[in-house]
Write a structure and sequence with these properties.
- By secondary structure, the chain is of the alpha/beta class.
- It is built from 8 helices and 8 strands, in the order ααβββββαβββααααα.
- The protein has helices spanning about 20-25, 35-45, 95-110, 185-195, 205-215, 225-275, 280-290, 290-295; strands spanning about 55, 60, 70, 75-80, 85-90, 125-130, 145-150, 160-170.
- A 6-stranded mixed sheet has the order 1-4-5-6-8-7, sandwiched between helices.
- The protein is elongated and about 85 Å long.
- Pfam families: PDDEXK_2.
- It comes from Sphingobacterium yanglingense.
- InterPro entries: RpnA.
């Protein structure tokens, strides 16, 4: 029997979902796959229903020896043969859409039947699902759910329904408890606020979320699991601290640059005024700190 441990005083009662350990614990274990089924069904409500699924290898090698390997957070296959690539990405990443297309393209390439069997080109549905800790579009700071398929750009007619991209942007989700209008809203709220709870709150659907609270207590982890979890939390905190420090440094640097730009603008204005008064360029340069060449170009 494994020895259980007490929760550290600086750790919440429940395992944080938004850590590498937590994501795999709640959604990547066979015994907890009902959580993943419930999550995906909430996301696909009205579009598709998953009765069951099984986990697949998360690594996808290239077709050629030198081709880069991709590693998914979770990859699973539904009872009807549909494929799900499920990602949690908290760190801001350039070309995220390119990555999503690369992942689905690699999967589709592997699924395409070869030879005579592939004459029909029939493919199973492929879903790319991502929970993001950064904004995809900073100008669109209120949009928290992206859902994309292949549609005609002129009339939005759906052309191909077997390739789907679903992305949840947590920083843009700011609904209050009294405004959670769907199960997906409840999922997003829980992902952001699970560590603030001591028990299953009334605002969550118990049929969907009871399993999260049953398996999520930190105190029920084995010592080895607890060490892995704390390490996962530390990596997340280190990243957050690094980002916060970088933002602080950028703000300070921007302030210094702003002062410097303001002083230069003032020097240029002064130099132009002196130039218009026919003051010798060498004297203007001495007074303003500008070069003679810069003064000559002023108009």
């Amino acid at each position: 029997m494994q020895r259980r441990i007490k929760t550290r005083s600086n750790t919440s009662r429940y395992i944080e979902i938004l850590t590498d350990f937590g994501w795999k614990h709640y959604f990547g274990r066979e015994e907890n796959k009902i959580n993943l089924i419930n999550f995906l069904n909430s996301l696909l409500e009205g579009e598709h229903v998953i009765a069951d699924l099984h986990y697949a290898n998360v690594e996808e090698g290239g077709e050629h020896s030198g081709e880069r390997k991709v590693v998914f957070d979770l990859r699973c296959i539904g009872e009807g043969g549909e494929h799900f690539l499920v990602e949690m990405q908290l760190q801001n990443q350039d070309f995220f859409f390119d990555r999503a297309v690369t992942y689905t393209s690699r999967t589709i390439s592997r699924l395409a039947k070869k030879g005579a069997e592939g004459n029909g080109y029939e493919l199973p549905p492929v879903y790319f699902v991502a929970v993001l800790g950064f904004q995809l579009d900073k100008a669109n700071y209120e949009k928290y759910y992206y859902s994309a398929k292949i549609v005609d750009q002129f009339d939005n007619e759906l052309l191909y329904d077997k390739l789907s991209y679903k992305m949840l942007v947590l920083p843009n989700f700011n609904k209050s408890l009294t405004n959670l209008s769907s199960i997906m809203d409840q999922w997003m709220y829980l992902m952001k606020h699970l560590n603030e709870n001591e028990e299953l709150p009334n605002y969550l659907d118990k049929r969907i979320f009871s399993r999260i609270f049953e398996v999520g207590e930190v105190a029920n982890l084995s010592p080895a699991e607890h060490m892995a979890y704390i390490s996962s939390i530390d990596r997340k905190r280190d990243y957050n601290n690094t980002i916060a420090y970088a933002k602080k440094e950028a703000k300070a640097e921007g302030h210094v640059l702003g002062i410097a730009e303001g002083e230069r603008k003032k020097a240029l204005e002064t130099a132009l005024n002196l130039k218009n008064m026919d003051i010798p360029f060498d004297k203007i340069a001495k007074a303003t700190g500008l070069s003679v060449e810069e003064i000559e170009r002023l108009k």
